[in-house]
Amino acid sequence: MCGRFVLFTSELLEHVGELPGVEEVHAPDGVPGPRYNIAPTMMVPIVRVQESLAQVDPGRWGLLPHWKKDLDGPPLFNARGETVASKPSFRDAYQGKNGGGRCVIPMDGYYEWHEKVPHFVSRPDGKLMWVAGLWATGLDRLSGTMVTTEALEPMDWLHHRLPRFLTEEEMRPWLEGDMDESLLQPTPKELREMFEVREVDKAVGNVRNDYPELIG
Fold this sequence. Notes:
The chain is mostly beta strands. The chain has one domain (about 5-205): SOS response associated peptidase-like (hypothetical protein yedk fold, Alpha-Beta Complex), CATH 3.90.1680. The protein has helices spanning about 10-15, 90-95, 170-175, 190; strands at about 5, 25, 35-40, 45-50, 55-60, 80, 100-105, 110-115, 115-120, 130-135, 145-150, 160-165, 195-200. InterPro entries: SRAP, SRAP-like. It is an enzyme of class 3 (hydrolase).
């Protein structure tokens, strides 16, 4: 699963512009500032693509389906890849119906706890990590969630779930609504083997802490 992540790059729009097939990037409402301890219900950048145009919008991390009447209940910040096509909370967004659809959510890394010890996961080459996501517009506001799948080696020791990170080749099919079931399978091995994991300070457990030193 993924319940905390980090996004601090100052060149987010440039990175979005490098996604496959993207020729133009719009961010009409700006992008959230750098954060080192993003938690559910906070605002995150939601990246949607239509043909050659990418749009980046701030949205609530925690999906609000079109039928949601209030903010009661736990935030839907993760969606299991095994049931995302059938579960009512995520089905419409997965299928691109009722004011919802596919997106990607960028991160510089994320936190995971193993035996109550926090760890930071990132790419040692410094490149952004792109997670398959879903967006919706329930309660007249943009919101999103991250798709997760089973964690496989070499990441399974850390947690049994892993965000569904996309390869460059998978990015476009996912964003265009391709129903290929392989897109809901675990993160490809070529990406899993790139990840670097290191233990970090327990201060990250408090969402009020938000500073660069958290990632070590």
